[in-house]
Amino acid sequence: MSEVTEKVRFAKAASRAFGLLDSTQKNRLLSVLADTLIEDTQVILDANQIDLNAMVGLLSDALLDRLRLNEKRIQDMAIGVRQIIELPDPVGEILERIDRPNGLEILKKRVPLGVLAIIYESRPNVTIDAAALCLKSGNAVVLRGGKEALHTNLALIKTIHDSFRKCGLDPDTVQFIQDPDRGLARELMRSNGYVDALIPRGSARLIQSVIENATLPVIETGTGNCHIYVEKSADLNMAEAILLNAKTSRPGVCNAAEKCLVDASIAHEFLLQVMPKLRAKNVELRGDEAVRTIDPSVILANEIDWQTEYLDLILGIKIVSGFDEALKHIQTYSTQHSEAIVTSDTALADRFMNEVDAAAVYVNASTRFTDGFEFGFGAEIGISTQKLHARGPMGLKELTTYKYLVYGNGQIR
Amino acid sequence: MSEVTEKVRFAKAASRAFGLLDSTQKNRLLSVLADTLIEDTQVILDANQIDLNAMVGLLSDALLDRLRLNEKRIQDMAIGVRQIIELPDPVGEILERIDRPNGLEILKKRVPLGVLAIIYESRPNVTIDAAALCLKSGNAVVLRGGKEALHTNLALIKTIHDSFRKCGLDPDTVQFIQDPDRGLARELMRSNGYVDALIPRGSARLIQSVIENATLPVIETGTGNCHIYVEKSADLNMAEAILLNAKTSRPGVCNAAEKCLVDASIAHEFLLQVMPKLRAKNVELRGDEAVRTIDPSVILANEIDWQTEYLDLILGIKIVSGFDEALKHIQTYSTQHSEAIVTSDTALADRFMNEVDAAAVYVNASTRFTDGFEFGFGAEIGISTQKLHARGPMGLKELTTYKYLVYGNGQIR
To answer: Per the CB 3.0–4.6 Å rule, which of A325, B313, B333, B352 could disulfide with B341?
Structure first.
């Protein structure tokens, strides 16, 4: 029996009792986990140092930084776990009550999904963060982290398992697949009957591989080729602030803007106002021919540019004749994550909100707000860019399903 | 460009305008469709006769009957479409309103999924039924029916397209893949970026093939290895009525009972009461050794029996020591569709409702009620046996998703 075969079975078996725990019991476990993380700080940092030593020279500084833990980052993990304790428990909510003419009483009740699988890459904080969200929502979880973070993850998993034991709960509820063999990741993606849903968290390549190979129900997360459309009636100072924020506040995340569309009638004024400020923030500008007539030093954008989520300090700029061309461009290239219009025309704002097909559509605000915390969910396991089950930021509710409880007194059909 | 590549593009393009129609426009289309079906009756029957003639001797009588249309069946299709007109339109509902401290106003609004694909088998009524449900919920749809029903389906699709034209709407909203090549079905299952969700309707083999091959988000439907557990405190006459109904009222459907578990202390009395009545309805009985000590003429059930959804007049019977053994058996063999307990012990009823993991759990009623009409949804596109997105009977709401509309006045993060 492979590591995956064995561990998904353990997780499924443990999920039954775990899913029946009440909020107090789950919160006590999370509280013990937060304390144990702090107690185990040195052990976790020692394990992290082994991973860092092995990767020096192999990973870029940026990736090494993602992998690196320190006292502050472990404290932040514990703070994150404590924040999850404060969130309302979604499990048990009665979503609907249906009384049928034949006397059947049907309750639609929110329940945990059961067993979740999370496949992720180098950031070890995901191990704690994802586990805590799954546990609060009553789910068992099978984690598969990146091999660069193996020692760190094993230390974190030991902290989690110790916390279960301190609470008299079954540590099998959280499983970690440690063998780096890719065949095992593929096996996990196909463990129907044991795992109820799979959430990949990481690069576009990881997510694509999961979509290609999984037979499990998957929630696709993360790709955001987000547009800011500056319509001709826009307040140009507002548009400038939104564009700068959406592009530069954190360029490596999925809700950052990658493209700016601007109406021809205001393009000259707006671009001459905003381009120097983008350049001052080290943003590389790529534009169509029309943009280059305004500023020939802009790099010519090609078809690939319009399709690309740069995740970097690069902005594609296109001048459009008006709303319809902007809409068509967005419909063609959007990854259906977050799209924004800056306008003072309420009729066009309404059209944008209705006609653009994305998880979040904005009028006069930065796309950077597509985020579980910013939406007020208190936490986030990822941002769904598909339409089944959950769309946009996913919090605790999105880690649950429902069942129908049907109460009769002998009804037959 | 293959037939699939072309048609999914047409469907996606048409879906944009179609998704913006209001309820009146969609209902008018459905009303015209119901009328046109009746007008086209003879053309549809002629096409159906071609399919029937080609299949005589190749299909069993039962399958030929599934394929066969007559005036009454076409009238029933039209009645079904008119019933869908009467249902409330789920699109546009505001599911949540979030006011953020920074002044952002976020509306969570129900919207169509976009483009649905349905892969189904021989019953041609699915063509009208599935199309009408998708259209009422604002979706474009790509249909792929069984090759035995090709001429019938093409006639029905012509009726649908004519109805669109009569209403001045875009017939590209409904596409039908007619080339029987299996490669095209596989291509449809992998048309990410054009199709938003795929619902297979048909045999376990079809559904398994979709799960294996699809990269699209799929809603798994239909397999039901449903149990009736007769607990020792049960009213035995109620248990008899429920078991007979669940097994024999329509043995070929997914919510029919396939297994009966009965507590040892009442097994003798209950089985001697119920087995003659099951046999009188031509039910073949297969039981464990304990059942055979009560009636040696019962066929010995094996491991395969406990796993099998017979969809036939066969019942597997197992005697259990009590609730815990029954629960364990159900946890091991359930397909998570519908499970029932007959009991007068409310504490055990509660345990069953909480601990059995299925789309619908019943106390003292027949599993046959797991059905969109019986649940009061007014229609049904299938019964989901997965946990993501929708679980149990799926009506119009389950053919929608949501988007977040975020209204700002210059907010940046």
So the answer is: B352
